[in-house]
Amino acid sequence: MNLPIKQHIIPKTYLKQFTSDDKNIWLFQKDTKHFREQSINKVPIIKDFYTVTDEENDGKKLYDFEYFLANDIEPLYQLYIEQLQRGKLLSELEKNHFAFFVSSQKLRSVSMKDKIIKEIERAFKYGEAGEWFDKTSIEQFTQHFYEDGKEITYEEFLEKSEGNLDEIPLDISKDCFVQFLPEKMKDFAETLASQNWSYLRAPKGRCFITSDNPVILDNEIGDSTFPFKGGIFPLTTQLALNINSLEEKFRVVGAKELRKINQQIIRNFDRFVFSHNEGILRSNIKKNSRLMEVTKYV
What we know:
single chain; alpha+beta; 2 domains; four-stranded mixed sheet; 10 helices; 14 strands
């Protein structure tokens, strides 16, 4: 039995819309600064990114969340993108469904995993809520503190730490992140579905690019001159979702507006930027290379 050890953090069904042949995609890799064309079957993949280890069952690997994404969430993209490409707005029910895909794509990125794990660490040390690991999340996780293999109370933990909590290492496993995702994904999907969505069409001869962190919320837009209210999520080379917009409609954006959207893709990517066209990708990276120096998450 082939187990899904190699796991995509961006669905192939999504990346397919940013190819010219449904198979291969052009990418820029941040750490090597290399451009190359590669099969969407092979990028971006991280081994056991969503895998949980069952310590009570001889360390058995559990792939439930990977199967859930593949079977229940990722198919929503193709189902509704075809409707949007025909210029038909989503009904409230359809929007509620598609919001799960958008929510999952925001939460399953490398930078979000790093951010949430840091928030979990701070919550366990200080009981402080973060942007994503909030008070409700804290209550869902039982906190245990140990000394020499013996469980102690939180009060004893604080006393023994002598106030130096920042210096105390915590073993927060990736399993904690995966276990946190389903409920948070549901909550965030409900928030997204309650907002207005506009659909932005690329002007003739222009294209959207995307990345391995493609859902950019309004509080992550690092540009006071950004021409849209709300966040951005490129859906295809020709269509982008404007999250939390002023109204719900389709509209064609101008060339300058499209450049601003692509700038935010480059400013917020984790490791890869993608395009169907080598020239478009190289041009965007060259024009916006300065933004990579101020990327929010490295």
